[in-house]
Amino acid sequence: MRLRTPGPRMAAMSTPPPLALPEGIEDTKRLVLEQLRLIRADQAATKDDIREINALLTRIEEAMQSLITHPFVPEGKIKTFGPVGPKYAVGKPLRQLPDGDWLIAIHLLESGEDAEYKLTSIQGDPDAV
């Protein structure tokens, strides 16, 4: 990535900081935001700039996800939507929602569709018979 250098402070930065620690996440986030601000200022972003920023944001998201403790999810369990609804297989946790609940991947057995479903709803659904 070609870092933009409006002044001596930015000139010293050549690579994004490592993401091993939460502080690294914040440093990388600040770097990305500063780069976006500079790109907006001169309107000269290249496709490589955008790709690199997206890669940095992906690294931030992956690092943050590794710090989150996932809840117990009955992966592989077959459940039904309510007492007589269609059957679905419970998959992996996808992401935590702002309300603290989790979105879980599910696979609808009759239609073959993949979907997302709240963990609290899964916990309230009965096991398939």
Structure notes:
Strand 2 (87-96) and strand 3 (102-108) form a beta hairpin. The protein is elongated. It is 40% helix and 19% strand. It is α+β, with helices and mostly antiparallel strands. The chain has a four-stranded antiparallel sheet with strand order 1-2-3-4. 9% of the residues are buried.
Q: How many helices does DSSP assign? A: 4
Strand content range: 15-25%
Net shape: elongated
Strand arrangement across the biggest beta sheet: 1-2-3-4
- Span between N and C termini? 55 Å
Q: Could you tell me the mean pLDDT?
A: 77
Summary?
With 129 residues, the protein is α+β, with helices and mostly antiparallel strands.
What keyword list fits this structure?
129 residues, alpha+beta, four-stranded antiparallel sheet, disordered N terminus
Task: Produce the secondary structure layout.
Elements: H1 8-11, H2 22-42, H3 47-67, E1 78-80, E2 87-96, E3 102-108, E4 114-118, H4 119-124
Antiparallel strand pairs: 1-2, 2-3, 3-4
